[in-house]
Structure formats: C-alpha cells, structure tokens
C-alpha cells in the first residue's frame, strides 16, 4: 500500500524513522508525518478516514443498529440518548482519561481542574455523573472526562463500548483517550513510569481475541505512536524516576496469568516462572497489566487516538507481592497522571483554551486575612 509516496506494508513504514521525523527519500529533507500518513500507517486495512470518522473528525458509529433505535441507554454509565442532552453535556469533550478506581479518578479530576484552571461555580463540587449506575464513576472538568474502568479486559471493554457511543451521541470531534494505571515492571523497579508503544497478550500476540456468536475474532490492538512520543517528551529531566517506553503485556489474570507464585493455585515452579519472565523481557516486554489490549483494540477500531501510561508497583523479576507502603504507592500513582496533565495543559494552552482566571470556586485575595476569617468561623459556636 502507498500513501503520499510512503510505502506501507502490514502497517510498517520502510522510509527510516528518526526521532519521529521521517526522511523523504527524494530530497532527504526531514519530513514530519501528516495526519493522513500516520493514519495510513495505523490503518493499512482502511483506505481513507471516512471508514472510521466523519469528515469533521467526529466519531463514526460502526454499528448501523444504533441509529435505528428509539433511544440508546448507556446502562453502565447511567446515561441515555433519549433521557439526556448528550451534545449539551459532553459536546466539548476532548480528552477521556480512564483509570482503575473511582477514588483515583475523582482525585485526577480535581488535579486536572487545578492544572487547567477550571473553575466551578462557588459552593459547588464535582459530581459523579455515573453515580446511579453503581458500576463506574465519571467526572467532567471542562474538556476532560475522568472515568474509572475497574479491573480487567471485560470491565474496560464494556465501558469502552458505552464511552465510544457517548462520543458519537455527543458529536465529539477527534477525542483522545488515555489509560492511566498501575502495572508490574519487567526489569524496572517500582515507581517507574511506562508509556506503552505496543500491547500484546500473554502469548505475545498484538490482537484482542473475542468470541462472537461462537466464532473467535481477532482485533488489532494498536496505540498511537506519535501520542506516545509526545507523552514521553512531557517527562521532566528533574523527575526523580525514570519514564520509559516499551512493549506492554496484557493478561486476563493477576496471579497465574502473570506467572505469580502466590495465587490460590500454582502449577508451575519458580524456575518455570523466571524462564517465562526472562523470555518475554528479551522480546521487549517492559511491563504487565490487565486492560491495555482491549483499550488499544477498541479505540483503534473506533479510529480514536489512544495511549496507555502506567506506573510499576514492583519489578516482577524480583518478586510477586506488592510490598511498598501505602503512602509510597499513592505517590507513585500520581506520576503517570502528571504526564497526562502536562500534555492536556499544553494542548489547551496551544489552542488558547486555558482559563487561568475567572470566577467560581473560592478565590483568596489575602491568605493572612483568609486564615483569620477561617479561624473566626471555626471558633464561632
Ligand atoms: C493493574 O492493576 C490491577 C490489578 O491489581 C489491574 O487493573 C491492572 O491492570
Ligand atoms: N497490576 C498488574 O496487573 N500487575 C502487577 O504486577 C501490578 C499491578
């Protein structure tokens, strides 16, 4: 396949990439890939953007049944196209950030609010939009959605079906999805930030397998390489930890599926475990977690740019149990969120959409007087 003179075969380019800049073979001028070129690299099976997006960049629904339905109930989000004005509520979304737990995603919402200077009207707080589903939590801070996805491929898969449909109903253009999570490192100590370049399953295949009507399908699990490079560039050389890129393994289980010796069952030896971990390490795997395969496959199928950024909780070449104290784990889990926050802030800055002034939440003019007023209020009985 050829696109704008760039040969593409099986999704691989042959024109020599260097630092994200591609050499144009005719005149050797550095050539930064256009969106269309990156597109043809990511979707060798699709001829043009129309297959996965509408011309204005909004998410094309690849299921004709939805348009024929009277309303679409997004059951696990406690939202619906008949009950809610989804364009009004979500039409301005640009970034969808997902992570495992409701608490972490609430905290992320507050952090990103401070980072991008988003103000809430005085006396209000963020609300969990999906509270009444009792499944996932969802917070909205201006153009950012922060959603918990639970643990494992089935949980993140259900959520992605509904969030992708939400993007379609809300007519969101060119959304960008992030998974911010935790993982086990392979040859990387606890606290290392890992940006996935590729994702593979436990047998090193980069496809999501699912059984539909009794037949097993394979969906390519691809992430956006350019986005991964941009995130890596957001790392601060002063950060007291490493930020690396590499291949992520995604498994269906935390214990036996990740070669742990400490599950309720274990039918292999420590030697078997180490042989396996060393072999996947040799083939480029730098971390193991449990959602990236579905995350990459479903976003890719929907034509949505996506990245996975995780922090390691331990080096699996050295052990199985997560032993770091809670305060340390809490600090480590902030690390990938910082990269994503910097990326979002930079994007909004570039677009002139950063609102660092305005009104809304409590604005302090004089910290000294503010403290006095607070103390006075506290002692008033
Ligand atoms: C990382 O951590 C969780 C298991 O403890 C799982 O959701 C994952 O991918
Ligand atoms: N999450 C995983 O899936 N594996 C680990 O080892 C740590 C966190």
From TrEMBL:
GO terms for biological process: nucleotide catabolic process; uridine catabolic process. Substrate binds at residues 258, 260. GO terms for molecular function: uridine phosphorylase activity. InterPro entries: Nucleoside_phosphorylase_d, Nucleoside_phosphorylase_sf, Uridine_phosphorylase_euk. Residues 1-30 are annotated as: Disordered. Phosphate binds at residues 135, 179-182. It comes from the Eukaryota. GO terms for cellular component: cytosol. Residues 94-344 form the Nucleoside phosphorylase domain. Coiled coil: none annotated. Belongs to the PNP/UDP phosphorylase family. This is Nucleoside phosphorylase domain-containing protein. It comes from Pieris macdunnoughi. The lineage of its organism: Eukaryota, Metazoa, Ecdysozoa, Arthropoda, Hexapoda.
